[in-house]
Design goal:
GO molecular function: GTP binding; GTPase activity; ribosomal small subunit binding; small ribosomal subunit rRNA binding
Main location: cytoplasm
Organism: Candidatus Pullilachnospira stercoravium
Helix content: 25-40%
Structural class: alpha/beta
Pfam families: KH_2 (PF07650), MMR_HSR1 (PF01926)
Strand content: 15-25%
Number of strands: 9
Order of helices and strands: EHEEHEHEHEHHEEHHEH
GO cellular component, one term: plasma membrane
Length: about 300
């Protein structure tokens, strides 16, 4: 390994819906984290890996900072705090605005307790006029002593190379954590479950997505065939929600399944036979046992 090789962890934090997963997917050049317009899309800490001749960055994509309303919410906040502790550099992602709300102030308070370089990334600059940007930078710069401030559009890929350059500035020298062809530490089954959850988030009514989880019951390759059989279950909290997820004559479930299958086939580069069921588990978001069963184990944060 070269002596000038850098490696370390960069935690991406921010309020819900500021574009953290979109930025991470853009930086590593591949879709790993799911995205939707609904808050709390990301629930776990997701690690992805960017490797180039200069070094290796392990990105920690975190759930949006919010007030916890149940045990799942507490789990998500725990995942954010742990990511901040594990990081060498923090990317704080915000939207272009001159109004600094309570959510941003609570993140600033969290960062004052951490002795790490913080790069402020102002996302969605494609939605504003160029001359408005200085006022937005001024509004944020008194909140914290930032190492750098970088305006970007994660969606359009504007100025995202600058984010990579800034991170490397603050990473320590050291060996690789992962092989250079590794893009994520997430098992395939987990990515498949998240893809199905993303499609449900994008398809369903506002109030339902917060109460759903997805588990993969079976995933195996057919012998001597390029087909993967996958059986999945969408978990919801109410019988009425189950009916909405299935839809009239199964129409909603079919819609979720076909759009999920398209993305899963792209990822696996194989044909997929996907079957999805829906089950009710009342108030699972307040049950440690059920949360653990669905992949949200507080002890693993």
């Amino acid at each position: 390994m070269r002596e000038d090789f850098k490696s370390g962890f960069a935690a991406i934090i921010g309020r819900p819906n500021v574009g953290k997963s979109t930025l991470m997917n853009r930086l590593i050049g591949q879709k790993i984290a799911i995205t939707s317009r609904k808050p709390q899309t990301t629930r776990n800490k997701i690690q992805t890996v960017y490797t180039c001749p200069e070094g290796q960055i392990v990105f920690l994509d975190t759930p949006g900072m919010h007030k916890a309303k149940n045990r799942l919410g507490e789990y998500m906040l725990g995942a954010v705090r742990q990511s901040v502790k594990d990081a060498d550099v923090i990317l704080w992602l915000v939207e272009p605005t001159s109004y600094i709300g309570e959510g941003e102030r609570s993140i600033a308070a969290l960062l004052t307790r951490v002795n790490l370089p913080v790069i402020l990334v102002i996302n969605k600059v494609d939605t504003i006029k160029k001359e408005e940007l200085p006022a937005f930078i001024n509004a944020y710069k008194d909140l914290h002593d930032f190492a750098q401030i970088v305006p970007v559009s994660a969606l359009r890929g504007q100025n995202t190379d600058e984010v990579i350059r800034c991170i490397f500035k603050y990473l320590p020298y050291g060996p690789m954590f992962y092989d250079e062809d590794t893009v994520t530490d997430q098992p395939q089954r987990q990515i498949v479950a998240e893809i199905i959850r993303e499609k449900a988030l994008r398809t369903l009514d506002e109030e339902i997505p917060h109460g759903i989880a997805v588990t993969i019951e079976k995933m195996h390759q057919r012998e001597r065939q390029d087909i993967v059989d996958i059986e999945a279950t969408i978990i919801c909290e109410k019988e009425s929600h189950k009916g909405i997820i299935i839809g009239k004559q199964g129409s909603m479930l079919k819609k979720i399944g076909s759009s999920a299958r398209y993305d899963i086939e792209k990822m696996l580069e194989e044909k997929v036979n996907l079957r999805i069921w829906v089950k009710v588990r009342k108030d699972w978001r307040d049950s440690d046992v059920q949360m653990k069963n669905f992949g949200y184990n507080r002890k693993e944060i």
